[in-house]
């Protein structure tokens, strides 16, 4: 049994990870351009208006951790917290009847990226989503 990733594994991983990173980078670039507006939108959804500031900082750290792939323990935390972030975004947008497609796409991309990350990036499979090796 070989644990070498196939071309399709790599395409799936990088597509999902690219979408996830795109959504993170969109927030990283967009939040500072519209701090007041973003804060007001968060407040309208029932969150404190200061939430965009720590979210922005954590998303910057998350992008660095995912792209460098050097911090295994942090990588797991980034995936977990970004999934929670997208879950809360989905819930907030859904309950306020605002567009939530980005949250759904993000949640799917996070799960797929996480499942394929260890196989494609050469790390041992320590997660609960262990894919069997193809042979």
Based on Cα principal axes, name the global outline.
elongated
Q: Which percent range fits the helix content? A: over 70%
Order of helices and strands: HHHHH
SS-based structural class? mainly alpha
Total beta strands: 0
Number of helices: 5
Uncertain stretches of 5 or more adjacent residues: none
Q: Kindly report how far apart the N and C termini lie.
A: 4 Å
Strand content: under 5%
Number of separate structural domains: 1
Question: What radius of gyration results from the CA coordinates?
Answer: 16 Å
Mean pLDDT, to the nearest integer, reads 87
What characterizes the major β-sheet? none
Characterise this structure.
Helix content is 73%, strand content 0%. It has helices at 7-33, 35-44, 52-68, 72-95, 101-121. With 135 residues, the chain is an all-alpha fold. The mean pLDDT is 87. The chain has one domain. Helix 1 runs antiparallel to helix 3 (52-68), helix 1 (7-33) packs across helix 5 (101-121) and helix 3 crosses helix 4 (72-95).
List keywords for this structure.
5 helices; mainly alpha; single chain; 135 residues; 0% strand; elongated; 73% helix
């Amino acid at each position: 049994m070989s644990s070498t990733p196939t071309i399709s594994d790599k395409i799936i991983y990088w597509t999902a990870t690219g979408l996830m990173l795109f959504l993170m980078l969109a927030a990283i670039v967009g939040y500072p351009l519209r701090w007041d507006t973003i804060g007001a939108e968060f407040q309208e959804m029932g969150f404190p208006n200061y939430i965009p500031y720590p979210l922005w900082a954590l998303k910057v750290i998350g992008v660095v951790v995912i792209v460098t792939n050097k911090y295994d323990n942090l990588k797991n935390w980034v995936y977990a917290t970004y999934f929670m972030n997208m879950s809360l975004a989905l819930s907030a947008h859904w309950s306020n009847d605002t567009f939530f497609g980005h949250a759904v796409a993000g949640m799917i991309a996070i799960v797929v990226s996480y499942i394929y990350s260890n196989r494609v990036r050469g790390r041992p499979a320590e997660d609960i989503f262990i894919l069997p090796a193809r042979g």
